[in-house]
Design brief:
Blueprint: H1 5-21, H2 37-46, H3 52-65, H4 69-74, H5 77-84, H6 91-107, H7 115-119, H8 126-137, H9 146-155, H10 166-176, H11 182-195, H12 214-217, E1 235-245, E2 250-254, E3 265-266, E4 292-293, E5 298-301, E6 306-316, E7 327-329, H13 339-350
Parallel strand pairs: 1-6
Antiparallel strand pairs: 2-3, 2-7, 4-6, 5-6
Helix pairs in contact: 1-11, 2-3, 2-8, 8-11, 9-10, 9-11
Length: 355
């Protein structure tokens, strides 16, 4: 059961700790300052399923190139995708651009402050809408990311395994969320999970909430949150073809806008499937050439499956036209290449000339 006294006994020491030890992050307002809704929104989209360390350079580059939501809305979608390349989960980039355009056209370039209105924007689910409402506009909203989930599960010693425990954890988090300084409260909970209430070795001795933490009182806080058994991700396989023209151009194509890696650039390849037939791969090559299969494969993990990609390489003469649906590029660095394709291209380049 939730102890109503915990709200005050947890809130004051938590915010006092945050005021002393808050992380200095480029999207955060200085103490006592007003947050920039555009910076908050941009960072929260980037931070979905991505670490702070990975996000910081991308955030800084986006902000330097597009310093306002209106500037981002005016940018061509393909440029946004190129700038995003390497950050992963590419539907976020498409939604980012769509959201910027919606804010510009529907709200005059100003983000709505209401959580429900924020949720109606492209790419803003319950967590992101709550985070923007709380951090950017000081609205009382329940912000629960992975770090907050871990803190709350330990604070209340939630025995129900994830993901079934999510509604209960959210309920407990809602009970703790104050009307005063809700944005700082949300960021304090995130910082606590990221720096002290770590997944494997929580530093309970310096945690401001240790006196009221049921997990610590039980002697094994790292046991929480209780994890359900993870399903084994299925394996898919396929082939990719790195075709290098004598003038240095590489054959590429753009993936369909909808679906996995939508709108990104790739070297041509086969479909990915559990029953991929390696012996038939060359018949699915994008053009006639003398292909050589590289040893091993490129491995990549997606959210719902693992991928093993065989790499085939070939040289062709200068002037060879690109087949339908493909194009030649002499500037791969300027393409919107996802991490998988960067790994495939790196493997092909390491093999040198192919004739």
């Amino acid at each position: 059961m939730y102890d109503a006294s915990l709200k005050s006994s947890h809130g004051r020491p938590l915010l006092a700790w945050y005021d002393r030890a808050r992380r200095a992050l480029p999207w955060r307002a200085p103490p006592g300052g007003r947050a920039d809704p555009y910076a908050v929104w941009l960072s929260e989209i980037m931070l979905q399923q991505t670490t702070v360390a990975a996000v910081i350079p991308y955030f800084s580059a986006f902000l330097a190139r597009w310093p306002s939501v209106d500037a981002l809305a005016e940018a061509p979608a393909e440029e946004v995708m190129r700038q995003w390349a390497g950050l992963g989960y590419y539907a976020r980039a498409r939604n980012l651009h769509a959201c910027a355009r919606a804010v510009t056209t529907e709200f005059g370039g100003r983000f709505p402050e209401d959580e429900a209105a924020l949720r109606a924007l492209p790419g803003l689910g319950p967590y992101t809408a709550a985070a923007v409402a709380a951090i950017a506009f000081g609205r009382r909203a329940v912000v629960v990311d992975g770090n907050v989930e871990r803190v709350v599960a330990r604070l209340f010693a939630v025995e129900t395994p994830l993901p079934a425990a999510k509604p209960l954890i959210r309920e407990r988090a809602a009970a703790l969320t104050p009307k005063e300084r809700p944005g700082d409260h949300a960021q304090a909970m995130m910082d606590l999970g990221a720096t002290i209430c770590a997944p494997k070795s929580p530093a309970c001795v310096i945690c401001p909430l240790s006196p009221v933490c049921a997990g610590r009182a039980g002697g094994d806080p790292a046991r929480f949150p209780v994890k359900g058994q993870k399903p084994v991700r299925p394996l898919r396989r396929g082939a990719a073809f790195y075709v290098l023209r004598a003038d240095g151009a590489v054959l590429v194509r753009t993936r369909p806008q909808k679906g996995l890696l939508g709108g990104m650039t790739e070297i041509p390849g086969t479909p990915w499937s559990a029953d991929f037939d390696e012996s038939a791969a060359r018949r699915l090559a994008p053009m006639m050439a003398r292909y050589r299969r590289l040893g091993g494969f490129v491995a990549h993990g997606f959210t719902h499956f693992e991928l093993q990609l065989s790499i085939y390489v070939a040289d062709v003469e200068a002037g060879r036209p690109a087949p339908e649906g493909c194009r030649w590029t002499t500037s791969l660095d300027a393409e919107a290449l996802p991490s998988l394709m960067r790994k495939a291209i790196e493997a092909a380049r390491a093999a040198g000339r192919f004739a």
